[in-house]
Design brief:
Number of helices: 9
Number of domains: 2
Strand content: 25-35%
Shape: elongated
Structural class: alpha+beta
Low-confidence stretches: none
């Protein structure tokens, strides 16, 4: 049996165990944004990701029976998502990746497990690396080639950890949101918006002293109170690599819109809930029905506890004064 070593990562006080081969230099594979979340107290965790580094076998080929089996698995896994453009091309490219990994016993074992219970699994093909996650057993397997550049692997592994964290949030009265969190006078403000709505701009204008997290933010309920937590999903512009992990009492939700004049317009909470579920939850489209239902309840609870508005803002710090008096 191969020797391994493990570390524990805590995101929003939710632990994930990461297991690597014994001779792996852990510093090369832990993304800088993940390092502040590494816990030293060895908290046991039901959730885990195991990293496998294997030699690329260019001569490996799938049998016709295996290719049919794996294709059916991918049809089921990709079928969980909204309609995908060029779905067949995506399946073919993924099959090619699987073909290079398929002689690894651990990878082959997982594929056959998926074929028996595909409803329990989700799958990500991340720039040549492969990640499988069983949301019932809470166990993930991350496969990469030995010669794959460490920096690329660490980024892909960061995405895999974030994926697992999003699933765990649903089970822990929490939401992993694509948005920005700011702390102003001890209150946590959540900012959401489509691409180019101004999320990065808001975080940059507020500055790193106010920023909780500037790309991914977790809202979590503890003892009937909601808090905003920083996450390792960060933009490079706002928060230092070794940023402090923050937890701030939650107050408001704002949807962003760039404008020449800064002003607030109150929003109907049903509209806020609908937009949050449709556009702003990380990995939500992969959730099974049970987790989707729990996520809906969590989101509804969050919105009920919040003041909700649309923030039209000019490119200045004027919005900070507006939020302090809102």
């Amino acid at each position: 049996m191969k020797q391994t070593h493990s570390i524990t990562i805590k995101i929003a006080e939710i632990p994930i165990r990461l297991t690597l081969p014994e001779k792996t230099d852990i510093r090369k594979f832990i993304h800088p944004h993940l390092k502040p979340f590494v816990s030293n107290n060895g908290i046991p965790s039901g959730a885990s990701i195991t990293l496998y580094r294997i030699e690329k076998d260019k001569n490996a080929r799938l049998t016709k029976q295996e290719k049919l089996l794996f294709r059916n698995c991918l049809e089921t896994l990709f079928g969980k998502e909204p309609p995908i453009r060029k779905k067949n091309e995506l399946i073919e490219s993924t099959l090619l990746h699987i073909e290079h990994y398929c002689r690894n016993p651990s990878c082959k074992k997982i594929i056959y497990q998926i074929s028996r219970n595909p409803q329990n699994w989700m799958f990500l093909s991340i720039y040549g690396d492969m990640f499988f996650y069983n949301h019932r057993t809470l166990k993930g397997s991350f496969f990469t080639f030995i010669n794959h550049h460490e920096k690329s692997v660490s980024t892909n592994l960061l995405n895999a950890v974030s994926c697992v964290a999003s699933f765990l949030c649903a089970k822990n009265n929490a939401l992993f949101l694509h948005g920005v969190g700011l702390s102003i006078d001890g209150k946590g403000h959540l900012f959401l918006g489509h691409s180019n709505a101004g999320k990065s701009t808001i975080a940059s204008l507020a500055g790193k002293d106010h920023a909780i997290s500037d790309d991914g933010i977790i809202a979590k309920q503890i003892n009937k109170k909601w808090y905003l937590f920083s996450t390792p999903l960060l933009q490079k512009t706002t928060i230092e690599k070794n940023h402090a992990v923050k937890k701030v009492p939650f107050s408001d939700i704002y949807f962003l819109s760039k404008s020449k004049k800064t002003k607030l317009v109150r929003l109907d909470k049903k509209t806020v809930l609908a937009h949050m579920l449709k556009y702003h939850l990380h990995f939500f489209r992969y959730f099974p029905d049970a987790l989707s239902e729990r996520t809906f309840k969590n989101a509804r609870n969050l919105v009920e506890h919040a003041s909700c508005a649309k923030l039209h803002f000019a490119k200045s710090k004027a919005f900070l004064k507006l939020l302090k008096h809102s």
